[in-house]
C-alpha cells in the first residue's frame, strides 16, 4: 500500500493512523518497525520539517533513513525515474518522495516494489494533512462539525490534502480566496462528497464562526517566477487579527510552515496566543511514525 494522495485513506484508515499516533503518545509497547527497516527520502525540492521529521521518525522506530538528493543521482544524467525506483526499492523498505511533478511520484510508485509515501508534490501533501487534522482533533477533542477555513491560495497542495482529510472526518471547509482563483476541481468535488465545502471571496463571510483559520505560502515551490503578482493578488487574504476577529472565540490559527510573516500571515497571529503552528509542526513527526507503522502493518 502507498500513501500518494489523501484520497488513498478512507475515514476508517485515517482514524486507524490517528489511533496509532495516540498509542505512540501513550508509549504503548510494540510500536516499532522491523529491525533494519530502511526508508529512502527521494527529494528534489527543499525541505526542513518533512526531511528531518522522517529521519527522526525512522531512528525512533528502530530503522534508518537515507536522504537522497535527486540532483546528485544519475537522474541528473538521464537515468529514468522508473529504473531509479526499481533499484532503490530493491534496497529499501519504503520510499518517501518530494518532487514537483505528481506524475513523477506516480511513476516511482508504479515501479517500486515497496510502499511509496508522498512527502509533497505540486498537487498534494497528505502526511501534512494528517498532522494538521490530528492537531485540530486533539485541540478541540472532536473534528466533526468544526468549521475549517483555508485562506489565501486555495488552489494549492496543502489546501487539496487538507480539504479531503478534514471533510472525510466531517469538518466543514470554507475556502476563502480572491475572485478568479478556484480550488482544484477534482479535490473540491471529492471533498463535497463527504462534507460541506464552499468557496468565498468575501473574507468576513468566509471566516465567520470559524474554529480554525489555516493558510500557507502565496508562492508555492515552483511558482517563484510569478511571486510578485501572486503576493499582490492574495495580499487581502492575509491571516491577521482582523480575519481572526471574524472567527469564533477560541479559534486557532494554523500554518504548515515555512511562514512568511507579513505576507500570508501576520507576525501577530503566527506568534500569538491563537497560533498552534509549533504543535502542528511537532505532530508531523508523530503522524509520520504512525503512517510508517500503519503501512508496514498493511504490507
Ligand atoms: N510543512 C512542510 O512540509 O515543511 P518542509 O517544506 O520544511 O518540509
Q: Radius of gyration over alpha carbons?
A: 19 Å
Integer count of domains: 2
Regarding CATH, which class of the largest domain?
A: Alpha Beta
Lateral arrangement of strands in the main beta sheet: 7-6-5-8-9
Termini separation: 6 Å
Q: Report the total helices.
A: 12
CATH fold category name of the largest domain: Rossmann fold
- The CATH architecture of the largest domain comes to 3-Layer(aba) Sandwich
Taking pLDDT < 50 over at least 5 consecutive residues as the criterion, the unreliable ranges are: none
Share of helical residues = 40-55%
Give the full name of the CATH homologous superfamily of the largest domain: Aspartate/ornithine carbamoyltransferase
Question: Which secondary-structure class do the elements indicate?
Answer: alpha/beta
The small-molecule ligands in this entry are: phosphoric acid mono(formamide)ester
Shape: globular
Strand content: 5-15%
- Biggest β-sheet strands, sense, barrel: 5 strands, parallel
N-to-C series of helices and strands: HEHEHEHEHEHEHEHEHHEHH
Number of strands: 9
In round numbers, the mean pLDDT is 97
Task: Note down, in words, how this protein is organized.
This protein has 299 residues and is an alpha/beta fold. It folds into 2 domains: 6-124 and 282-298, 3-Layer(aba) Sandwich (Rossmann fold), CATH 3.40.50; 127-280, Aspartate/ornithine carbamoyltransferase (Rossmann fold, 3-Layer(aba) Sandwich). Helix content is 43%, strand content 14%. It has 12 helices and 9 strands. The strands form 2 sheets. A 5-stranded parallel β-sheet has the order 7-6-5-8-9. The longest helix has 22 residues, at 277-298. The structure holds phosphoric acid mono(formamide)ester. The site of phosphoric acid mono(formamide)ester has 8 residues, from α2.
Amino acid at each position: 500500500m502507498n500513501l500518494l494522495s489523501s484520497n488513498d485513506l478512507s475515514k476508517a484508515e485515517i482514524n486507524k493512523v490517528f489511533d496509532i499516533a495516540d498509542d505512540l503518545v501513550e508509549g504503548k509497547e510494540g510500536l516499532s518497525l522491523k529491525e533494519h527497516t530502511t526508508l529512502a527520502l527521494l527529494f528534489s525540492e527543499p525541505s526542513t520539517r518533512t526531511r528531518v521529521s522522517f529521519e527522526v521518525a525512522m531512528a525512533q522506530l528502530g530503522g534508518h533513513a537515507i536522504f537522497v538528493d535527486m540532483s546528485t543521482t544519475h537522474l541528473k544524467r538521464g537515468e529514468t525515474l522508473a529504473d531509479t525506483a526499481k533499484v532503490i526499492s530493491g534496497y529499501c523498505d519504503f520510499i518517501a518522495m518530494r518532487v514537483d511533478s505528481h506524475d513523477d511520484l506516480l511513476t516511482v510508485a508504479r515501479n517500486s516494489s515497496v510502499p511509496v509515501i508522498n512527502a509533497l508534490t505540486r498537487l498534494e501533501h497528505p502526511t501534512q494533512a494528517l498532522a494538521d487534522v490530528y492537531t485540530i482533533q486533539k485541540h478541540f477533542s472532536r473534528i466533526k462539525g468544526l468549521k475549517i477555513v483555508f485562506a489565501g491560495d486555495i488552489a494549492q497542495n496543502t489546501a487539496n490534502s487538507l480539504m479531503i482529510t478534514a471533510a472525510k472526518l466531517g469538518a466543514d471547509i470554507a475556502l476563502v480566496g480572491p475572485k478568479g482563483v478556484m480550488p482544484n476541481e477534482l479535490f473540491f468535488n471529492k471533498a463535497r462528497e463527504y462534507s460541506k465545502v464552499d468557496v468565498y471571496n468575501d473574507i468576513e463571510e468566509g471566516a465567520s464562526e470559524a474554529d480554525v483559520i489555516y493558510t500557507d505560502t502565496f508562492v508555492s515551490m515552483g511558482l517563484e517566477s510569478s511571486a510578485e503578482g501572486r503576493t499582490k493578488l492574495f495580499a487581502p487574504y492575509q491571516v491577521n487579527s482582523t480575519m481572526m476577529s471574524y472567527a469564533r472565540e477560541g479559534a486557532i490559527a494554523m500554518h504548515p510552515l515555512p511562514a512568511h510573516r507579513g505576507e500570508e500571515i501576520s507576525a501577530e497571529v503566527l506568534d500569538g496566543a491563537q497560533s498552534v503552528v509549533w504543535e502542528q509542526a511537532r505532530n508531523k513527526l508523530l503522524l509520520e511514525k504512525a503512517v510508517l507503522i500503519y503501512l508496514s502493518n498493511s504490507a
